[in-house]
User: Fold O-antigen ligase-related domain-containing protein from Segatella copri.
Amino acid sequence: MIKMGKIQSILEYIVIILLILEFNTPFSQYGIFAKIIYYIPIISIFLLLLLKGKKIQMKFWHLLLFFGSIIPFLNVQYGAESTYIRLFMLFLPLSILYFSNYEEERNVILYKYTNVILIICCVSLFFYIMGSTLNLISPTAYVPVFWGEQRIYPTYFYLYFEAQNSFFLGNEYIRNCGIFNEAPMYNMALCIALAIELFLREKKRKIVLCILGVTIITTFSTTGQIFLCFLIFCAMWNTKNKKYKFLKFLLLTLMLLVIPFVINWILQDKVSSSSGEGSVSARSYDIQKCIQIGLDNLFFGKSLLSEQNPNHNYGFSNSLFALFADGGLYVLALYLSGLLFIPLYNMTRKKFFKESIVLLLYFYLFSITVSHFRYLTLLFVAYGISMCINYRQYGK
Assistant:
């Protein structure tokens, strides 16, 4: 007979695998497969709650958040009502309930996330080196994908997609996009896995950290390179071995001197390339447009899930300002609470310090990557909010 722990673990892996596939991959665009990706995570989290049986606790804040989600429903893009219900009235409340009721195991599902991302890393590195770089393996198919426009992606057994090129140091390279629509999405997924592995997991797996770091480099993402520099600095700062105290001092001094130049060099190279200059100017214009739309519709935004409108022409470069434009201060406050305000509050009270660092790093990545209406982002929003509303953890 299968033990409850095994069932719980299987359900959590199902949730994580489908959340990753929903995080802007080609798989989320195709018929019945898309429906599986959209609805099975909701069913799986519901089943996880049923495993708790009578132990499930519904608190006042759970109900308040659920009923509060009804107000933005009145401002949803026509035709996107079912998407809103799926995201904000089903997945988010259930995720908050999950983290609240699995409080002693809240990080277990995140460890499973790093395990799945590690497998994706190994597969993508193999095909990136053997196929995209050395051309020893040829693509096995060409897949039509709509990402801003209709595109054709070469794929290797549908396990790796050549989705994007980039200029770096004056040369053009194929970017490692893994199974994602573009490199920034893959980079964000990798960086979050690296943060979880580095800050939350008790026993650090050095080989996993190295694989994640190398894969981030192959995405040629400016965000990822800066993220790596920051995490290397944090890792060195937290070194407790007294034998390396003097070496630590020298290395940290060197890092403080070198990192600003490295970051500046990366940014300058990004801007100086023809594609980089266009990317920077387009991002700047997009942010300005989102801010203006948000200010014109301050409290509830222009229209939630407006990207489903064929005439939608903003919010293609970031999440933070796009969310402000679409949902106004009302919806933006939900995300800021889970990813920014609650983590900062917890850190001042010296509670959930490491978890708060991961949430703040997610906020950084979320702010500059299009990911606001994705399950993975809502999972981390729920992760942050659940830390605040669970009265037992605050001794109330």
About this structure: The beta strands are 141-147, 149-155, 165-168, 171-174. The two ends are 39 Å apart (CA to CA).
